[in-house]
Amino acid sequence: MPEVTTAAKIFTCNQSRDLAEKIAKAYGAKLGKVITSTYSDGEFQPSFEESVRGSRVFIIGSTHPGADHLMELLLMLDAAKRASARHITAVIPYYGWARQDRKDKPRVPIAAKLVAKMLETAGATRIITMDLHADQIQGFFEKPVDHLFASTVFLPYLRSLNLENLTIASPDMGGSKRAYAYSKTMESDVVICYKQRAKANVISHMELIGNVEGRNVVLVDDMVDTAGTLTKAADVMMERGALSVRAICTHPVLSGEAYERIERSKLLELIVTDSIPLKKESKKIRVVTCADLFADVMNRVHNNRSISSNFIM
Q1: Could you tell me one molecular function GO term of this UniProt entry (predicted)?
Q2: What is the DSSP letter of 285?
């Protein structure tokens, strides 16, 4: 007999509650009830307060540091598996630990692969995520991965700006594919930044490949951490004659002195999604929600409908 499609159940980890509430509202459902008990030493235990037996369960949780965020997601996946949920989808707006996607020197881990195996072992039967740091991370999973593009939510905003003489820029060589995809859609020029690092998060030198004089530049990247690269690129571009510099970054990690650097920089605006909650407000940071994108894909997955339209840049 064909499987009967019943209503899906949506739950959230604590770190993604604000986004999960928006996703649930857009989906047309209420968040399931979960309580978390915490021991005096910091150990915690999430508990589903309703039956999930035989259900399709969506568990929403970004895995940005600290490690408790990843641990909470793993515990909830395990709880759903042990409660006999039929399908368990981990909805991970920001897939953390993804910068460690290869061995770039001897005797280091491949954390992105390790996290993938942990998620599957915990019980995830499907992964929905957005703008992975490296596309090949999908290959670390044996379960289906739906890798969404944040361009779905950024491009309408970018078009609304009606920028003349638009140039799309990548802050490094690794992001050139993303920059070319945006430029193809927007029918604009492309500029690539070439940078050399003294060490992690410290740039020693930066050059531009391309011309920005008299152009309105939009930098695109998958994440912004310390904002060192973005602010350095913005300053260099303004020195080279750019009319304005904005940045589109999917995941606002924003650690260290990131907020201070952004405020001091020549960046006109930083546009991000709510995949990670902002630590504080900033007049230069605009948040565009990704809730509708995730809600639509979750609905399509639950009803066994195609989601290929969400993969088009």
Answers
A1: kinase activity
A2: E
User: Of residues 81, 195, 266, 284, which has the active-site annotation?
Assistant: 195
* CA–CA separation, 132 and 94 (whole Å): 8
- Per domain, the residue ranges of the chain are 9-148, 151-289
Comparing CA positions, the residue from 70, 146, 131, 68 lying closest to residue 273 is: 131
Residue 49 structure tokens: 């307060």
The third-level CATH classification (topology) of the domain covering 9-148 is Rossmann fold (3.40.50)
Q: What is the Cα–Cα distance from 140 to 310, expressed in whole angstroms?
A: 22
Residue type at 119 in one-letter notation = L
Q: Catalytic: 81?
A: no
> How does residue 2 score in pLDDT terms, banded at 50, 70 and 90?
very low
Type of residue numbered 27? Y
In this structure, whether the domain defined by 151-289 belongs to CATH 3.40.50.2020 is answered with yes
Element containing residue 82 per DSSP (H, E) = helix 67-82
**How long a stretch of residues is the chain?**
313
